[in-house]
């Protein structure tokens, strides 16, 4: 999570976290880094596509309905 934070800060790259951990503490740590998305395994192909699309959108732009 620290590496992802550094990559975001230094390279302006969006991050999508993928984890097999379902506990609240892991999610809170991940979300503190400001990821574009967060997926818990197992996830659907649709959820992955949605997370990648969110990461590719300019920051602050809402998803189209």
Q: What does this 3D model show about the protein?
A:
There is one protein chain. With 65 residues, this protein is an alpha+beta fold. The protein has a single domain, classed as Rossmann fold (3-Layer(aba) Sandwich), CATH 3.40.50. It has a two-stranded parallel sheet with strand order 1-2. It is globular, with a radius of gyration of 12 Å. The relative contact order is 0.19. The model has no long low-confidence stretch (mean pLDDT 87).
Describe, in short, the structure shown.
With 65 residues, this protein is α+β, with helices and mostly antiparallel strands.
Which secondary structure elements does this structure contain, and how are they paired or packed?
Elements: H1 2-11, E1 16-19, H2 24-32, E2 37-40, H3 45-56
Parallel strand pairs: 1-2
